[in-house]
Amino acid sequence: MSAQTFDVIVIGAGPVGEVAAERAARGGLKVALVEHERFGGECSYWACIPSKALLRPGNLLAAAKRVPGVPVGDRIDPERVFARRDWFTGKGDDAGQVEWARGAGIEPVRGHAAITGEREVTVDGDRVLTARHAVLVCTGSVPSTPPIPGLDTIRPWGSREATSASAVPGALGVLGGGVVGVEMAQAWATLGAEVHLIITGERPLPRLPAFAGDAVSAGLRDAGVRVHANSGLAGVSAVDGRTELELTDGSRLVVDELLVATGRRPATTGLGLDRLGLAEGKPLDVDDTGRVSAVDGGWLYAAGDVTGRAPLTHQGKYAARAAGDTVAALAKGEPVDAAPWSRFTATADHHAVPQVVFTDPEVAAVGLADARAGSADRVVEIDIAVAGSSLHADGYAGRARIVVDTEREVLLGATFVGQDVAELVHAATVAIVGEVPLSRLWHATPAFPTISEVWLRLLEAYGL
Question: What is the fold, at CATH topology level, of the domain defined by 151-262?
Fold first, then answer.
């Protein structure tokens, strides 16, 4: 068995692991970055990047149709869409990411990693890496598969297949009304598939305000998606090379592919965590610096989906910066400031996690979606009907909501629905994180004519 010693070992070379490794290396440490699949991870090849590449053409076509005088057709060219997506993903070639790691002073190690002792990681069973200071786990998450009768008799799509397929299925079933479900349902519908979205509730995106789910549901239907609400999947069977779906209401559908988009779980299985007394398949509980609380010695850290705290790429990278900086500082004997607003802590997931659903219409949200129970919080909700939105698209339909702490008169949350509202969410994030008083926010004058004028209308509706 070969053996090597590093200051820090990072397991998982997705965006989160790359950031953690880069921050530790920037602090002057010798870092190994271990990955058993592709350097660049899920987001780069199978999630954020390819899914948005598939969604953008349909959104753009819908937007163009809302402005008279723009010459547009009615069809999207799937082959060109797939080619553009493949350009962004490099067709799965991670050579550029490996080169980046080496350029950043990081040693890339390819193989399956398992923690085999304190500060010890064994790769592929025969290469032992020892960390002088810390091991960081950044392995992300994997799909959760529901126990549906017959599902094991077919080969369903997961999010990877949905974002990497290069042929449009004649009919696609999508199980699940979360972000992956609605985004992929709309993407494949605009590419020409007959899409059936199967959801258990009245509307998709149940964690967001009802008006968001209703607007997205209407947008899906406009794109040709058949939404089967208040339903579910009772069983699956293979029939003549296709898949028959039995819905809970007794109706049946025959599709060419079935996408199961029913959530994800932390990817902690097979990492050897049981040797440390930790449960496999469960999230790693960390403090705000990323240190795994249940492991003595302060040498095990984690960031990203694997912690279960805020399973979004941008939040994982944010947490990775804190963890990487903490490990580097401690390794050099430097003080670590654990205050809530220190660069060594990741606290945003306690109150200000931004997220965008890239459907048409878009949904952009940060912080609370509704008032806190028993509080004096106030919810203000209005249509997005300003000069900027009217010029942006004929018949612009959108809605905005803010949640205000009336005792401190600061924002606690904001939700926007409408075409191109993704660019509104960062202003809301800054206002929430910065605890900007509404009386001061009133003096942040929105440019005319932009959709951001909605901020003025929201503050007016509040009473300023």
Answer: FAD/NAD(P)-binding domain (3.50.50)
